[in-house]
Amino acid sequence: MRYLSIILMTIVLSACQNASNKSQIEEKSETTLNGKLKFIRKDTTITTPASKVLTCTFEAYNTGTDSLEILEKIASCDCSSIELNKQTIAPNEPLFVTVKINTEGKAIGKHRTTVLLKTNGMRSFYDLAIHYSLVAKN
To answer: Do 22 and 83 share a domain, yes or no?
Structure first.
């Protein structure tokens, strides 16, 4: 009987949580703008000598009809920094996302760093990836 009570309580709480999530999603969709980024490329592969700062720039355009704002930018590694040429991108304007990766102390071989951009546009998240191989210095 005790287990049945716990199971029923779990189901009720889960249903309440689902209703709350649905409400939040509906509220978010009302505030989403008609901005959309179109990236020239979303990933790249680079080979570079170890112990260098690797720099990669991604180019995108706002193909939507509203301005788009970059709300957040996150790199998968603390060794990386992300620079944007602007936070708000008007329709048909470019966005340049420059990622710098400090390879100091990283092992020779293949590595991957990703960048996540969060926007207020039609598509909320954009993933970018840099695959890089570190080779020994000559």
So the answer is: no
- Report the alpha-carbon distance of residue 35 to residue 76 in Å, rounded: 25
Distance CA 76, CA 48 (A): 19
Q: Which domain holds residue 99?
A: 37-135
Q: Do both 54 and 119 map to the same domain? A: yes
Burial class (CB in 10 A: 0-12, 13-18, 19+), 125: exposed
Of 43, 52, 96, which Cα lies nearest the Cα of 70? Answer: 96
Distances (CA, A) of 36 to 117, 127, 136: 12, 14, 41
- Structure tokens belonging to residue 113: 């760093």
Residues 57 and 24 in one domain: no
Residues 53 and 115 grouped into a single domain: yes
Q: How does pLDDT run across 11-44, given as a tens digit for each residue?
A: 655 555 544 444 444 444 335 678 899 999 999 9
The H or E element that residue 90 is part of is none
